[in-house]
Amino acid sequence: MSAVIEGHHDDHHHHGPAKGISRWLFTTNHKDIGSLYLWFSFIMLFIGGAMAMVIRAELFEPGSQIVSPEFYNQMVTNHGLIMVFGVIMPAFVGFANWLVPMQIGAPDMALPRLNNLSFWILPAAFGVLIATFFMEGGAPNFGWTFYAPLSTEYAPPTVTYFIFAVHIMGASSIMGSINVITTILNMRAPGMTLMKMPLFVWTWLITAYLLIAVMPVLAGAVTMMLMDIHFGTSFFKAGGGGDPVLFQHVFWFFGHPEVYIMILPAFGIVSHIIETFSRKPIFGYESMVYAIASIALLSFVVWAHHMFTVGMPIAGELFFMYSTMLIAIPTGVKVFNWLSTMFKGSLTFETPMLFAIAFVALFTIGGLSGIMLAIAPADFQYHDTYFVVAHFHYVLVPGALFSIIAGVYYWLPKWTGYMYDEFMGKTHFWLSFVSVNLTFFPMHFVGLAGMPRRIPDYAMQFADYNMIVSVGAFLFGLSQLLFLYVVLKAIFYGKKATGQVWEGAKGLEWTLDSPPAYHTFETPPNLESGEAKA
Amino acid sequence: MSNIRKSVSKLFLATIGMFLFGFALVPLYDVFCEITGLNGKVTGPTFSEYENVGNREIKIIFTTTNNDDMPWFFDSSKSQMRVKTGEQNLLNYVFTNTTNKPMIAQAIPSVSPGKGAQYFHKTECFCFEQQFLEPGESITIPLKFVIDPDLPKDISSLALGYTLFDITKDLIQKQASN
């Protein structure tokens, strides 16, 4: 009897997914791991979002009412850490897992087991980070940038867990990047040269290189902190001959490329959506590739614009000011290319397209306030005010996050095989669009008027705008619950989607069924016969 | 498959390389600051005699600060001096351990404006030594310095600030981890 069963199992070579929880724990399938990353990011979005709600509730009125200033600092710190390392980055890795193999015609990622490991250590890292809330001394409270000596000499004892968590997140990102680069360089379908790759694949190739270049530097920075705290070294301790300003240099050497890590894949996603719903190939494909590459290269020589006020010589201020402004050129090229793609296109405005257009418009606002901040003499006024908060939230929320939402709407029918509810999707868009501006636009005004960031209380003259900001933030938070509802409704009650899904969609993933088989492109597609091109 | 192995080992080496580069930033940063005189970092005691003692008069301001909750009494004998460039000058610093425990301290200097730091030569100082004092003990240490006659014309005054750090705990921790 048992022999029969064994024999039965053996001739299953192209089996489907395993059953139950072990499917997800031990999976090496790029589609499963992509889904895991995306769901993880979705859960973390609500945890980090809840922290933002606490912050905005406290700032609803001047004075100290809901949480203690100490807890407020923990909220600000962990909101930042979770949104950067737990939401935006894992979401993009999830997209990469789902899409890179399907877009280049590969059967899976190059290193499937490493892929499983790099996902599963991520919940461990955030488990450690969130566990610090329940420990003596409370969670990290020194801001997501963890400047020394705040994060060393004056840190709560839980800083060691924080360092450990950052090490694990870094290891996860590095392993993921090695996987992506190895896949793209070695497993493209025959005939797909580098300059024929879809733009999303291009953006991820460059992002992965950035990650490999800077995540180890971040690991080095937290290792130095660890040694200062526990092993008596003096990297950042002035008393022992070290220098706290050194921390800022090392951190921002990582930190600036990091902000492009969080936006380059967004450029790829938005490019695909805009060409699909304009029913035109992307305008200036090659200039797009060169623009991404030059943004990535420039990101290594601009870091000190985050620290204009530490007392740099005038030559340093000028260098970092001009090099920062230079980035506006390739970014401008991209924005003009998106506009030119839409120009005279047969536009339709489905939900992904609405989010993509909002991305272009609102990301540009964030870019322009970035240029204002790049002006070194003006930055002395803006530094550490809400203007900075407005700036980076404009590039990260209606920037990176909108692109992720747009991408989810765009590829959800492909991933799940079911269409989402278009009316609910559009409702979600308009609610998000209005509330995101209500939240972040007034921050420009209070920032220019001098309201400092990272404070639980503020002067009376900022009260009106802060109340508007808080109302916008609550509305934005609620709108994302609607997003969860739309996604779940599509999965459980959605109408069956076709393989093509969108009329204008081009690319290898649209030649597959919706949902695609568990294993796809086990024999590479023939690019010459099909119309598959970026 | 061997192509994949090649890519992975290259990328792995790049990762290790960038980790080490992070640490290399530490000495690179120090060298950079020393060359440019950034951060008011001053080099160790140097002695130089100048043939042409300049006749420019420079105002020097001395400040002493206790870091954090360092309890010692720490002050200089003068709060400011007018000195001639190229001439040797002297003043005293007093350290008193006001606690009932033996403690070790270290004073860290900084010259402002930063670009004047490289023209401020200390010929005798305590700035790179750890100072041990018994409870209630007091010590007076001289500081001798010369202002370089090449000091740029646009600098008419310099400030030398000392910050006193309590490093007792750090040293105990260092010994414990060795």
> Could you list the spans of chain A in which at least 5 consecutive residues all have pLDDT below 50?
1-12, 530-534
> What is the CATH superfamily classification of the largest domain in chain B?
Ctag/Cox11
| Number of strand elements of chain A | 0
Note poorly predicted spans of chain B: none
CATH H-level superfamily title of chain A: Cytochrome c oxidase-like, subunit I domain
In the sheet with the most strands of chain B, the strands line up as: 3-1-9-5-7
- Counting H and I runs of at least 4 residues, what is the number of helices of chain B? 2
Biggest beta-sheet profile of chain A: none
The ordered string of helix (H) and strand (E) elements of chain B is: HEEEEEEEEEH
Considering DSSP H and I runs of 4 or more, what fraction of the residues of chain A is helical?
A: 55-70%
Main interface by residue count = A-B, 40 and 42 residues
Helix content of chain B: 25-40%
Arithmetic mean of pLDDT of chain A: 93
Q: Could you say what the CATH topology of the largest domain in chain B is called?
A: Ctag/Cox11 (Pfam 04442)
Number of domains of chain A: 1
Class inferred from helices and paired strands of chain B: alpha+beta
User: What would you call the structural class of chain A?
Assistant: mainly alpha
Outline type of chain B:
flat
Query: For the record, what CATH class of chain A applies?
Result: Mainly Alpha
Our estimate of the beta-strand percent of chain A is under 5%
